[in-house]
Design goal:
Elements: H1 2-21, H2 52-56, H3 62-67, H4 70-88, H5 107-115, H6 145-154
């Protein structure tokens, strides 16, 4: 009986010490109750369309390109992109400004689209990067984006059917190493 009294006394002392140490500091919450988006954020990279930043933006322009607002990109970078495109691809001859790619875009028109590095989405057309008919209406996981970009850069007006530079219109990667899933998250698990 004496041992039980000691236990009860110890529990009472512990409870009273806990009560003394507790405060009501959680009664007046003054901090944010949701996500806090205050502060300064910095744009680090632009990569809406794969390989555009990598191929068309020279090393000395990377920081400027990555921090430029998309609405200002065309005016700031189109001329440099056109020079690079005409240098890379004999399908665009600077002496023939009407040379066009598979989309029917001249070098100036195409680089105007590329210089504004945003991924456009259409609400009323099939979602595709380019399917031969629909142009930049979004992007499916199954779209072979690199092949499309190579066709548009090096293929010339005939594109894939009779490319001007046949060795440069494909990366020769026909599919993923794993099939996409039929439900979210759609991407296959890593090896």
């Amino acid at each position: 009986m004496k041992f039980n009294n000691i236990k009860l006394f110890a529990v009472a002392i512990l409870a009273s010490m806990t009560a003394i140490n507790c405060s009501n500091d959680d009664d007046n919450v003054t901090g944010p109750t949701g996500p806090n988006f205050t502060g300064t954020y910095v744009q680090e990279d632009q990569m809406a369309r794969p390989a555009i930043n990598t191929v068309f933006v020279n090393d000395g322009m990377k920081d400027a390109f990555n921090t430029t607002t998309p609405s200002d990109m065309g005016a700031a970078f189109q001329a440099a992109f056109q020079t690079k495109l005409e240098t890379l691809s004999p399908a665009y001859d600077p002496a023939s400004p009407t040379d066009a790619n598979a989309l029917g875009f001249t070098a100036a028109q195409f680089t105007g689209v590329l210089a504004t590095d945003v991924l456009t989405v259409s609400l009323d057309a099939p979602t595709t990067f380019f399917d031969g008919t629909n142009i930049l209406t979004g992007r499916n996981l199954t779209d072979d984006v690199i092949d499309v970009e190579l066709i548009l850069i090096f293929g010339g007006e005939a594109g894939l059917t009779n490319p001007e530079n046949p060795g440069l219109v494909s990366d020769n990667v026909a599919s993923n190493d794993k099939e996409f899933l039929m439900s979210f998250p759609y991407l296959a698990s890593p090896w």
